[in-house]
Amino acid sequence: LKMSWFCLYVPLHLLAVTRLSQSIKAPTSSSQQSFKADVFNFYHSLILADGKETTIHLLKDIPKRYYFVLEEGRALAPFSLTVTPCDVPIEWSILVYQSPPGKATPGDHDTQGVSKSQQTPSLVSTIFNYKGNSVETYMGMSSHSALYLLEFLSTERDTHITVYLTTDTTSGHLYPELPMDPRIDVIGVGPTTVTLTWKHSPSALQHRDSIQYCLLVNEKHNYKSLCAAETAIRSSGMKLPPTLALSLSPYLLEPQQVMILSNSELSIINKVSSGEVRQVCMGTKNTYTVPNLSPSTQYYFDVFIVNLLTNASAAYTGTFARTLEEPEPKVTELKDGKVVHVVLDGKKQKFYSLQYQARHKKIHFTFQLCRGQIRVHITRNGKTVASENLSGLRYFSLKGKLLDTYLVQLRSTEESNSSVKVLASPHFHKPLFPLLPDSLKIKSFSKLRTCRSVTIAWLGTQEESKYCVYRRQIDEDQIWGELQSADRCSGPESRPKSEKVLCKYFYDLNLQRAVTTETIKGLEAGTFYLFDVYLFGPSGIPVRYHSKVVKTRKKC
Q1: Domain of 495: which CATH number?
Q2: Which residues pair with 292 in a beta bridge?
Q3: How many domains does the chain have?
Q4: Which residues, other chains included, contact 494 with Cβ-Cβ below 8 Å and sequence gap of 6+?
Q5: Which of 15, 95, 437, 440: disulfide with 149, CB 3.0–4.6 Å?
Q6: Pick from 530, 527, 517, 529: which is nearest to 553 by CA?
Q7: Which N-terminal residues, if any, form the signal peptide (predicted)?
Q8: Domain range enclosing 494
Q9: Do 295 and 341 share a structural domain?
Q10: β-sheet bridge partners, residue 154
Q11: Is the dihedral of CA 535, 537, 542, 544 positive or negative?
Q12: Which pTM value belongs to this model?
């Protein structure tokens, strides 16, 4: 048996049967059936490759058998066998056929052609059996030649498993090594986050370039192996890349998957019927905070150590944690005719709540968007009455009953901070904010530009109001940031007096003619200027037009 396994594939079947027949003198009627069963088993078995992970597909209630033979001529023959169920629990066992120590090896013949093994029956014994869905490793040692039969059976449904056999236990392992304590510790829990830590794998410390940790988060249960997790996700109606280690290629993603790559961490979110399944690979970091979870929800966490070269993995002992309940948002009371300025944190994406109790049947809400993008949601006694994204100045006129309770919820729709001014009042005929034109844009006339002046125009209203113009010299690289961060609610009171150009009153009952222009003089050639127009209403609360940047001509 010192030739290659490839050459032995067919002869070993015949050799196995020959040894069985020689190990029994002459089968009696009582042993006839057992003898035939053994011969049948080997005729319908496959050889198990040494040093290679083998995927085996099992049909329900149909056993599948593999065998391997330990090499002859070795004083000790160690071997290791690892079986990984990829779905439901299975049954598997190891049977060994061997000759008693000190006796002739089955298959040896004397010079007269008489088999010595006919006088010495082989010993047949079951050395290991298991039922379950955990990853199990059997390590054995034999002092003489033996033939091993493996039998696998699934009684629940069709499934698949992986089997790894090696007789070389000294030159490393296919699977990454787990630490002595393979548990995952939960060290922090919040309403939307859970922080985990685990002990380093010896493999990660020795081979940082080819080893990485991958975390699986789901709302169903823990998984005992990576292939079990992948099988579960596929059974939810989704195709999954072969393993987390190979999920680094964006083109492998399915439409139901979202890949997020930030800070050298790869996150893949799968949308399945039982909730989100998140996969995060974070290199060799052994502490991770899982973000963007739902409050008051139980999550299961599994960490796998993955060998990027062989794609083999080992599973830590999974854990679970329940996120905390979301604290009740602080509610600010709105009072009649009092303006409330609200600043929203875009990164937290939380609602800011305002409450108003009506003392009149008709109520008017006014929102002036100062910066960013904001969504408003208004309910009356728990029922939605308005919901939309804000733009500029927005009025809501609502009719209800006395003592109705209104809840106004505001949320930033972008990552940067947003702000808005809110007013609630039963008296719409006395608005604190001025009447606004159809557009708050400032227009400049390119043909009227000179080296020393520019001409701008803006729309007015049918109501006589005060308009003040301000200018400021600006560098070209500051333009984008200045326009993005402009606070449309801020008044001119904080600006230097040197930036003020003029103030004027005007109106026109005919809206088609409610336009005014101004030529700003005394400017420098080839220079950028930022112009602002402020509109003041009866109450003195200003509304800022959209800033306009104009460059004077270089040569005239």
Answers
A1: 2.60.40.10
A2: none
A3: 4
A4: none
A5: 95
A6: 527
A7: 1-23
A8: 442-551
A9: no
A10: 60
A11: negative
A12: 0.51
